[in-house]
Amino acid sequence: MKFSYVSHLHCPKCNQKYDAREKQQLCECGSPLLVAYHLDELKKEFTPELLTKREANLWRYHEILPVEHEENVVSLGEGMTPLIAMPRIGEDMSISNLYMKDEGIIPSGSFKARGAAVGVSKAKELGIEELAMPTNGNAGASWALYAARAGIKSSIVMPVNAPKITRNECAVSGSNLYLVNGLISDAGKIIGQAVNDFSLYDASTLKEPYRIEGKKTMGLEIAEQLNWEMPDVILYPTGGGVGLIGIYKALTELQYLGWINGRLPRLVAVQAAGCAPIVKAWEEGKSVSEFWPDSSTIAFGINVPKALGDFLVLDAIYKTEGCAIAIEDQSLLAEQQKIAAIEGAFICPEGASTFVAARQLREKGWIKDGEKVITLNTGAGIKYPDTVQVEVPILQPGDRIRKNTNSLSKK
Predict the structure, then answer these.
(1) 381 near 104, Cβ under 8 Å?
(2) What is the C-alpha to C-alpha distance for residues 331 and 270, in angstroms, rounded to an integer?
(3) Looking at residue 332, what is its pLDDT?
(4) Could you tell me if 152 and 123 are in contact, meaning their C-beta atoms sit under 8 angstroms apart?
(5) Contacts of 400 (CB under 8 A, 6+ apart)
(6) Is residue 407 very low, low, confident or very high in pLDDT (cuts 50, 70, 90)?
(7) What domains appear along the chain, each with residue ranges and CATH number?
(8) Which are the contacts of 401, defined by CB distance < 8 A and separation ≥ 6?
(9) Helices (H), ranges, 284-343
(10) How many CB atoms lie within 10 A of CB 137?
(11) Is residue 72 over pLDDT 90?
(12) Given a cut of 90, is residue 262 above it in pLDDT?
């Protein structure tokens, strides 16, 4: 078997085709490009049984990833993160089959490592010497680290308010790092100018085709971990929305291969109330979103006022009969602490938003009794130390502690 069955790139808007063996960015029409595979050929040769003897990382799915030669794979062991049952918090919100896909234990501490691993590997295969990108923090950290491993230079611009640990990850990797007193959209304009000035490879969200392919492995893993049986609902914290687009792409490819059957899970785009362009567009039945002015949220990773792939996010929601929902910062911070207290999982604010969304959708009856529900925790809570404010008593030598009176009951 071939290492990859990649065929070509295509535009989801105008259907223009492009060569996947050459450096490509956006379509001539301005749309992101998607990767196509020789699925009919692969269908005859690729079976789920082949996976059982492979290493537990995302490259186990290399046939439907875009890197054609194994020697170009750049890896830090990413992928195959646990799908964890969450019975106590599930009982608290009356969802008996609640699971969390935990991306907090992946290299660099967030799911962005998936897109970086595949994107940087393909960049290496294409002979890229330097890449550039704007970031809200985690993506830049991942791409900078993977670029360093690949021997590729990187230039990163992030908002000054991005989590400091992500700034450190970029700096320690040797990246050409800058901070901007603004939003990711402002960082994007600066990177766009640098790309033009220095002929850099633009690794901005969806301006290269391969980040989606890394992110789609979350969908492939969920299907495999559930023994190729589909859940009813998947909730995803949505900024640029690449993960949701990728999960949908993964499931449609598996469906075509005949590995899964029946109805696809309803996909839920979860946004912050202070930055909810996808939610607004979905509520209005639109196919694209509008720029969200003065966006603000503690869940910094989803503070994206206008996503380049918004039409792909909305299409995935509509086609799976999913929905979009906005969550208040206070609610997600309270949920973050509650999950840590009763399930022992210290998740990121973006991940916590998906649990609040599940809770609210269950209360509304949109999530039904007995349905299997999966939330995506996209990063480690420890990367956001400032989101948790605690007062801790300071003892003197010889002092005694008090009895723990904290209640761990579900209410």
Answers:
(1) yes
(2) 13
(3) 97
(4) yes
(5) none
(6) low
(7) 93-103+214-387 (3.40.50.1100)
(8) 395
(9) 310-319, 329-343
(10) 28
(11) yes
(12) yes
